[in-house]
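Translate sequence into structure tokens.
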Amino acid sequence: EKPKRIRDIVYAFYYLWKCRRKHQGQLELGGPIYNGWKQTLVTIERHILKELGFSFYVIDHAHKFLLFYVKLLNGDYNLAQTA
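Result follows.
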């Protein structure tokens, strides 16, 4: 599966919306309609992924803990690199 860009999805939706409403005009990249639909798409995607069990919590990096203990032991640069 190849990930789709948000811009491509918004443009496809705009094309369908424009055909149904017989709307004339272009969707401006960065315009108010585009930004609103983009934000809505991202929000809905997060809700779907959350319902499917994906976690969005940021996990601390393991190096942070290693460097803490190297400093606690008054270790030098070589000890930190080895750890």
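Note: The mean pLDDT is 84.
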